[in-house]
Amino acid sequence: MHGKTRTGRQTGGHLRLAAGQAGHHRPEVAGAEVARAAPFAASWPYQTFLELGALAGAVPSARLHARLVLQEWGLAALSDDTELLVSELVTNGVRASRATGRDAVRMWLVSDLGQVVVFVWDASLQPPARADPGADADNGRGLLLVEALSQRWGYFGHDSGKVVWVLLEAAPVAPASAIGFIP
């Protein structure tokens, strides 16, 4: 799919959108969800949207999408942490949507090229809940991972489900003169 800006220019397969716009599916909802969850990100110029079935293949597809988009945006340094968080949020979203009998999970990535917000929608109205896993537990550490890797995170519910979001910031790059390289 090739995106277009408001002026109709191609953007290399991902959407570069003005504030309040969103991806190809239910665009009026996506823009509103971005603005409601993270108003600071609503006007960020880079946004992409992906709707997935609540199936096992959703997680690797979402990870790949995130990695390729971040590479395109010049934010490959955020890929590892973003992919881990996308995996966690989409995995939980798939489980939550399946539990409600719905078959969709939606993901948005929004950036100003210095930070990225990942939004994942699922069909459950239940808020994310921190588990207290034992030392031998195989799962239950998702929110601990989210808290450790993101600068901020949150969620909000609405009549058709909830959106969980995380904010990641790119590490500032020191100017060459600050690290001893003066041309």
Topology of this structure?
Layout: H1 27-37, E1 46-53, H2 58-72, H3 79-99, E2 104-111, E3 115-122, H4 142-149, E4 152-158, E5 161-169
Antiparallel strand pairs: 1-2, 2-3, 3-5, 4-5
Please provide a brief summary of the model.
The protein has helices at 27-37, 58-72, 79-99, 142-149; strands at 46-53, 104-111, 115-122, 152-158, 161-169. α3 packs antiparallel against α4.
Write up this protein.
The structure is a single chain. With 183 residues, this protein is an alpha+beta fold. Helix content is 30%, strand content 22%. The protein contains four helices and five strands, in the order αβααββαββ. A hairpin with a 2-residue loop joins strand 4 and strand 5. Helix 2 runs antiparallel to helix 3 and helix 3 runs antiparallel to helix 4. Residues 1-29 and 175-179 have low confidence and may be disordered.
Q: How many domain units?
A: 1
Q: What Rg is obtained from the alpha carbons, in whole angstroms?
A: 17 Å
Instruction: Supply the helix-strand structural class.
Output: alpha+beta
Bulk shape: globular
- How would you name the CATH homologous superfamily? Histidine kinase-like ATPase, C-terminal domain
CATH fold-type name: Heat Shock Protein 90
Strand composition percent: 15-25%
The whole-number mean of residue pLDDT values reads 77
Instruction: Report the end-to-end length measured between terminal Cα atoms.
Output: 43 Å
Helical segment count: 4
Strands of the biggest beta sheet: in what spatial order?
1-2-3-5-4
Residue windows where pLDDT falls under 50 for at least 5 positions:
1-29, 175-179
CATH class identity: Alpha Beta
Number of strands: 5
Query: How does the major sheet shape up?
Result: 5 strands, antiparallel
CATH architecture: 2-Layer Sandwich
Query: Order of helices and strands, N to C?
Result: HEHHEEHEE
The portion of residues assigned to helices is 25-40%
